[in-house]
Amino acid sequence: MSAEIIDGKAIAADLRHQLEKEVRVLSDGGIRPGLAVVLVGEDPASMSYVTAKERDCEKVGIYSRDIRLPVDTSRETLLKLISDLNSDEDIHGILVQLPLPEGLDEEEVIRHIDPAKDVDGFHPESIGRLVLNLDGFLPCTPHGVIKMLEASNIAIEGAEVVIVGRSRIVGAPLANLMFRKAPGGNATVTVCHTRTKNLADVVRRADIVIAAAGRPNTVTADMVKDGAVVIDVGVNRVDDSSRPRGYRLVGDVDFDQVKEVARAITPVPGGVGPLTRAMLLWNTVESAKRFQEGPRTV
Ligand code: NAP
């Protein structure tokens, strides 16, 4: 039997609808959530991500400030800009689009963002809070995966989860979220990477497989247990001369084959991606709410 296709676009649209109402309430109370999006250079993929983020803000009523800087922007200029945004009362979230051009230290730039405005959830304080199970901003893609599973009524608690990929932005934080003692957690989690032996055997144990390797066909049908749920985070360009752009996007999962054994599966595009974008809006609204409530104590 063919798997249920989890519709990330529809789940993200529901979330945006909910956020739109919250933005209205906040704005009526005098705080319109504001997001600053900083793009250094003209990387085409980054430019299209940034444009999409601005469009998303507009849809839900979030104020977005688009700051585009030339590729040769100095460290000092960028850090000064972030300092200004840190103290700008109209801005509740700061996003610096990665990757930064060569010569700029991403770690330093992220550390410079006030953790209270770290809506990407990449600041060491945000990551520390996640690991310690304290209130804080969750990184958008891992948080989006949890929201997607919850919206699809897929039980995480007690599930055997295998994540393929251990990156700092996807695999590692997602593993922490899924095993922590909190709603959306309490799973038994295994994290795989390029040194994992017998990847297929490990993945076959999973009730929920999450592919975040950045390589097409990393997860094939023979690796998936009958009835498992498969979440494909990967986004890869493969050449396709039949497309006007000369390529198409695929995930890390062999979608056509795996959907014949899985219970539910996400497509690429239209799966995790829309949730990642929605969770950025979510964090920006959360941040505005916290500003309204005053400084946190823990
Ligand atoms: P990354 O930093 O390159 O990390 C990839 C991880 O996968 C690494 O831990 C690597 O292991 C592991 N890996 C790679 N090939 C493997 C293999 N054959 N077997 C087992 N493990 C393997 O990538 P990322 O930033 O996490 O992104 C992963 C994918 O998700 C990319 O396609 C990216 O475009 C996509 N992505 C999508 C969204 C979205 O919103 N949909 C958001 C973020 C990322 P090692 O650690 O041993 O190298």
Summary keywords:
single chain, 298 residues, alpha/beta, Rossmann fold, 2 domains, 6-stranded parallel beta sheet, 3-stranded parallel beta sheet, 10 helices, 11 strands, 39% helix, globular, binds NADP nicotinamide-adenine-dinucleotide phosphate
Average pLDDT reading: 97
| Assigned CATH architecture of the largest domain | 3-Layer(aba) Sandwich
Q: Tell me the β content.
A: 15-25%
Query: How far apart, in Å, are the first and last alpha carbons?
Result: 49 Å
Q: Helix coverage percent of residues?
A: 25-40%
Secondary-structure element series:
EHEHEHEHHHEHEHEEEEHEH
What spatial order of strands do you see in the largest sheet? Answer: 1-11-8-7-5-6
* Count of distinct structural domains: 2
CATH topology term of the largest domain: Rossmann fold
State the CATH superfamily name of the largest domain: NAD(P)-binding Rossmann-like Domain
Summed up, the helix count is 10
How would you sum up the global shape? globular
Bound ligands, named by name, code or SMILES? NADP nicotinamide-adenine-dinucleotide phosphate
